[in-house]
Amino acid sequence: MLEIRGLNKTYFDWRGGTQVLHDVNLEIGPGEIVGLFGENGAGKTTLLKSILGFLSFQGEILLDGKPIDRSNIARLSFATCEHSFFPNLTPEAHGEFYRMHFGRFRERRFAALMDFFQLPERTAIKHYSTGQKNQFEVILALCQGAEYILMDEPFTGNDVFNREDFYKVLLGILEPEETILLSTHLIEEVERFVGRAVLLKDGRVAGDMSVLELEERGSSLLEYVKETYGYRSDRVNRALGELTGGREI
User: Fold this and answer.
1) C-alpha radius of gyration, the chain, whole number
2) Which helix (H) or strand (E) holds 170?
3) What does the pLDDT look like over 141-158, one tens digit per residue?
4) DSSP string computed for 16-65
5) Residues of 67-98 as b/e, b for ≥16 C-beta within 10 angstroms?
6) Which of 39, 79, 111, 193 could form an S-S bond across to 154 if both were Cys, CB 3.0 to 4.6 Å?
């Protein structure tokens, strides 16, 4: 169980402090697939980086009742569009490195996903396209052998067909104990993939509901997000009206 208790995060600069996360409380159990949604600046990336210990924070983050440190950090992995691989190494060399450092490295999954994405194994990652780099980042996160896999906008630069097929593959390869926490703006695409939606708004948890509960309400994930955020469907017409004064442009 991943437990987040009273999490607060403030960034400081010469102008003072800006609080990005406000008293965030969450519990994520083994085997869950959780979508983390919110506007730009809602605090999604900050939350993920706090879980991984990349940032200092106030509050508690526990993994099975223990703080996350060097003794259990290998139980978590991270796929980020900022990338965490070694650009001068090939995928083949990355595989050797991961075998040396992670006792639960999933070799068969690594080979299968490299084949699925048709990535060249003996080409340095720096020569990959942006989409290929993001694909490889996801492969490493999924093959490390971690139980909790955190993903921050991992599919930037990938076409819709690659993304749709990947969701299907991912559902097929995950073990019962593997947990996914996925931050993305692709709400409609992941609706059939995630089992639970956590919504952040202005650094606070504004919503937390299972997809099953949404189905019982007769609501889609996108409708739930719009409702929680107070989305106004007339905002485009109102803006155009104000900009043009009712005149044609």
Assistant:
1) 20
2) helix 160-173
3) 999 999 999 999 887 666
4) EEEEEEEEEEEEE-TT-EEEEE--TTSSHHHHHHHHTTSS--EEEEEETT
5) ebeeeeeebbbbbbbeeebeeeebbeebbeeb
6) 79
